[in-house]
């Protein structure tokens, strides 16, 4: 059970105590926003996704524990509207800065969370509640990559794409065939002899391709600019994409960087993701899974924050 909660293989980096240190001005105030207001349609659970349990703890509690172990102060949690009390009861006893209701889109939820941060927060880490096992080292590395006063606009963890990439005529669909043999589930998925299956248009060069995870970290100034752009009607698939768009339009100048992500940071989207994370947490040997040795590990249990401690700059209170 080397991967069980509490038996972390990822010693939170000591440096996590110092993320965001600005060489010109001393410690920087970090804020964390956990977005958990989605409907969880694809998981299909009877409760909001963040309240679903993994090894006896809510996804939300796991996520908060990971942030705390990385040395971040208590997070603003953006919850499903109308479910504030249930979310408050599902934090696993960990402090939060605030609980606020989310919006109809992820970006609207991020905006609601950012609005609830203390005014003096200068660097913001936006993290999906649906990534319960993100290693503290990954979180700390993303935060450390965004010093105030530098040329980095934003940072996020990424993992190399291993599969060959093909552009197809349309999405291949959400259903994974589960039957093991021709004539079983697999055949059910290709009913019609392939007539309604997507077609390959081209092979996409995989060089430099990464799958982006969270936390996505920004200086508050940059994130505020990006969120204002949303208010102007711009759309983007993730928070980083908003910043890319503004950079490409010449409205922001600087680098958007990628730090090493982790297979532990898999997002719970479908039932299978939850089951995979259960298996990972129960059986995998942390630190042996990611390319290059990785930073894998299960965040420690509540109250077992690493050496970086919590509430670096006081946090936002309980
Ligand atoms: N999220 C949010 N507010 C929204 C939509 C999403 O806070 N309006 C959050 C989710 O709670 C989740 C993260 O963004 O932690 C990533 O989104 P996703 O995995 O797509 O979760 P859901 O939107 O809840 O799931 P689904 O798309 O299957 O409904
Ligand atoms: Mg969604």
Overview of the structural elements:
- This protein is α/β, with parallel strands linked by helices.
- The protein has two domains: 14-160 and 211-293, Alpha-Beta Complex (Spore Coat Polysaccharide Biosynthesis Protein SpsA, Chain A); 165-204, no CATH class.
- The chain has eight helices and twelve strands.
- It has helices spanning 59-69, 84-88, 106-115, 136-144, 185-189, 220-231, 239-248, 271-283, and strands spanning 30-36, 53-54, 57-58, 76-79, 98-101, 123-128, 152-160, 165-168, 200-204, 210-212, 216-219, 255-260.
- The strands form three sheets. Strands 1, 4, 5, 6, 7, 10, 11 and 12 form an eight-stranded mixed sheet that branches. A two-stranded antiparallel ribbon has the order 2-3. A two-stranded antiparallel ribbon has the order 8-9.
- A hairpin with a 2-residue loop joins strand 2 and strand 3 (57-58).
- It is globular and about 60 Å long.
- The protein binds cytidine-5'-triphosphate and magnesium ion.
- Cytidine-5'-triphosphate (CTP) binds next to strand 1 and helix 3.
């Amino acid at each position: 059970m080397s991967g069980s909660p509490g038996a972390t293989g990822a010693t939170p980096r000591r440096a996590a105590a110092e993320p965001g240190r600005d060489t010109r001005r001393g410690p920087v105030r970090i804020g964390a926003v956990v977005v958990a207001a989605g409907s969880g349609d694809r998981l299909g659970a009877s409760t909001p996704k963040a309240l679903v349990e993994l090894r006896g703890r809510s996804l939300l509690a796991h996520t908060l524990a990971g942030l705390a172990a990385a040395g971040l102060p208590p997070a603003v949690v953006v919850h499903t509207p109308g479910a504030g009390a249930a979310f408050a009861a599902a934090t696993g006893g960990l402090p939060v800065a605030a609980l606020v209701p989310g919006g109809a889109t992820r970006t609207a939820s991020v905006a609601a969370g950012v609005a609830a941060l203390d005014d003096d927060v200068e660097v913001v880490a936006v993290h999906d509640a649906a990534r319960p096992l993100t290693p503290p080292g990954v979180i700390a590395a993303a935060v450390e990559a965004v010093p105030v006063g530098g040329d980095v606009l934003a940072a996020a963890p990424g993992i190399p794409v291993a599969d060959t990439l093909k552009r197809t005529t349309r999405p291949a669909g959400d259903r994974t065939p589960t039957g093991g043999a021709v004539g079983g589930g697999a055949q059910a998925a290709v009913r019609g002899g392939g007539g309604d299956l997507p077609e390959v248009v081209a092979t996409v060069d995989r060089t430099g391709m990464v799958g982006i995870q969270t936390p996505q970290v920004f200086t508050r100034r940059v994130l505020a600019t990006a969120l204002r752009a949303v208010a102007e009607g711009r759309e983007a698939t993730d928070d980083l994409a908003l910043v890319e768009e503004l950079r490409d339009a010449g409205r922001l100048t600087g680098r958007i960087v990628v730090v090493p992500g982790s297979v532990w940071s898999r997002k719970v989207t479908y039932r299978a993701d939850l089951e995979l994370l259960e298996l990972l947490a129960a059986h995998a040997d942390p630190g042996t899974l990611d390319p290059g040795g990785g930073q894998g590990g299960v965040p420690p249990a509540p109250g077992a924050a690493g050496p970086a401690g919590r509430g670096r700059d006081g946090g936002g209170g309980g």
